[in-house]
Amino acid sequence: MIEEFKKKLECPADELAFYTKEPMNRHTSFRIGGPADLLVMPKTERAVCCAVKAAKQAGLPLTVLGNGSNVLVRDEGIRGVVLCIGTEYGAVHVEGTAMQAQTGALLSVLANEALKNSLTGLEFAGGIPGSLGGALFMDAGAYGGQMADVVVSSRYYDAETDTIGTLTGKQHAFGYRTSAYKDHPQWVALSADMQLKIGDPAEIKAKMDDFSQRRRDKQPLNYPSAGSTFKRPEGYFAGKLIQDAGLMGYTVGGAQVSEKHAGFVINRGGATCADVLALIDHVREEVRRQFGVELEPEVRLL
Questions:
Q1: Is residue 160 located within the same domain as residue 250?
Q2: Which residues are catalytic?
Q3: Using one digit for the tens of pLDDT, what is the confidence trace for 173-209?
Q4: Cβ within 8 Å of residue 32, ≥6 positions away
């Protein structure tokens, strides 16, 4: 199976790195997940496209992963090919108030590049542990800012048509934790152009420092997690509902509802995917029973 994939590749081998039976707990912020049959890490745009095309031609399932910060991988792992678009495919270029980046770039890197160039608009992204690709997929945001505010266009590879396409403006269909990329799983985001504004470096840094301090004060950053476990229900806050349901500290195996912020499920050590899923199910059931509110997981199960 893996050899068939490698035969279909149409780019030089040095543009990708291959790992067989790679434990996915090494590639997710939850530190949970069994092995991937084959993990591929591209270094060029050509490698991204070739890997996607080769998986399709070989008839192998393909899972696209960024920094692994908003996912939960099953204990049995992932079959087929995992295309992990990481920092080796993360070039960033700034010209004037425009920023262009490959989708493996970390949001923290983008925010710091903006600060270095006295550009405002990405302060919210400084503490988000994801990559640009994942941020496009779910319109990542925090503290009143979101990708929809800064992204003007993006490029993607369409596995169905073997072509590269471009989205501009409203074609991204950005919404709360969704986008056109989520609606078109055959598209793999390659890069994005962002438009920022000239700002005062001291003010930009102060804003970033404030956001960072708020995260340290309120979030359980000392434990592995996938960030906010649930989407915000309309008219409510997930963390407040979970806290009011008396579930702070509730534990299943190595998974726990954080005692610092009830909106986070954390890995206290040795947690399995089964532990986390059982915990999520219990939380949803209790919140539904006590308040009649349906919590929808924000974390993607792979």
A1: no
A2: 177, 228, 298
A3: 999 888 999 999 999 999 999 999 999 999 999 999 9
A4: 24, 25, 72, 73, 75, 224, 267, 271, 272, 273, 276
